[in-house]
Amino acid sequence: MDESNATCGKRLASIGLENTEANRQAYRTLLVSAPGLGQYISGAILFEETLYQSTVDGKKMVDVLVEQKIVPGIKVDKGLVPLAGSNNESWCQGLDGLASRSAAYYQQGARFAKWRTVVSIPNGPSALAVKEAAWGLARYAAISQDNGLVPIVEPEILLDGDHGIDRTFEVARKVWAEVFFYLAENNVMFEGILLKPSMVTPGAECKEKATPEQVAAYTLKLLRTRIPPSVPGIMFLSGGQSEVEATLNLNAMNQQPNPWHVSFSYARALQNTCLKTWGGRPQNVKAAQDTLLVRAKANSLAQLGKYTGEGESEEAKKGMFVKGYVY
């Protein structure tokens, strides 16, 4: 739930709503107050506005989440900007003032943080961009832990491109090696982080599609060669996959034992059908919440390796890839 106000505006525009604070508040109230959501969801990443906001009924968003036994978290990065000297790549800003902001977020009830940086395969990726991404994540993680927040480390390898799955694997190996090297250099406690990586898939424009079993095989191979077993949880991002695709891939990864808790941290792949069902109409709130619960339960089952994909709607099967996606 951590889309910036501008990105949240794109979501609202897709159902014909204006990007106002009242509309953002109404939508996020719907999400946090869905009855029983805490059975399937353990944490919610918030945007700064939402962390300090109340629901439509006047209760603090943070308090509603805690009542649901959902841990509140906070997006702390300041977004992507062009990386000078690179091959048209970006870096993530937000380290300035991060320590004092993190302390304030903790006071407000946040218990974990999220920082999203990206690597683009069509643009190289250059050694400079990979190093910058890894160093930024490591500095952020150290500052978060210093302020009592569990850092979610998110090195997203974008789906953009027509490359095959082997190329994604090769790039991800390099990126993750750098990330864990710099985490160690910055004295980050591995037991106190969560990793939020992309699954290893072909580029979105690749003609050869991968089955969930192939995605699982490549991704698990990467995890085993790169991630220390002391990292407690791997929370995969959906990155523009359809709701069903993301769930099937997660399910395939949980068909065998892992030393980690292999789970999900989805935005669009949990909320797309929910948002469309709501459509900004108060009378649709319950139906939209029911849809959200269906998706959350499906991914909860996938995390146990027990999801079948039966009875899914056509909406849930639609891909959500956006070329050059920014938050």
Automatic annotation (TrEMBL):
It catalyses: beta-D-fructose 1,6-bisphosphate = D-glyceraldehyde 3-phosphate + dihydroxyacetone phosphate. It holds the Pfam family Glycolytic. Its EC number is 4.1.2.13. Its main location: plastid. Keywords: Chloroplast, Glycolysis, Lyase, Methylation, Plastid, Schiff base. CDD domains: FBP_aldolase_I_a. SUPFAM superfamilies: Aldolase. The keyword Transferase does not apply. InterPro entries: Aldolase_I_AS (IPR029768), Aldolase_TIM (IPR013785), FBA_I (IPR000741). Pathway: Carbohydrate degradation; glycolysis; D-glyceraldehyde 3-phosphate and glycerone phosphate from D-glucose: step 4/4. GO terms for molecular function: fructose-bisphosphate aldolase activity. The keyword Chloroplast applies. One of its GO terms (cellular component) is plastoglobule. Signal peptide: none annotated. It is found in: Plastid, Chloroplast, Plastoglobule. GO terms for biological process: glycolytic process. PANTHER family: FRUCTOSE-BISPHOSPHATE ALDOLASE (PTHR11627). Belongs to the class I fructose-bisphosphate aldolase family. Plays a key role in glycolysis and gluconeogenesis. This is Fructose-bisphosphate aldolase. It comes from Punica granatum (Pomegranate). The lineage of its organism: Eukaryota, Viridiplantae, Streptophyta, Embryophyta, Tracheophyta.
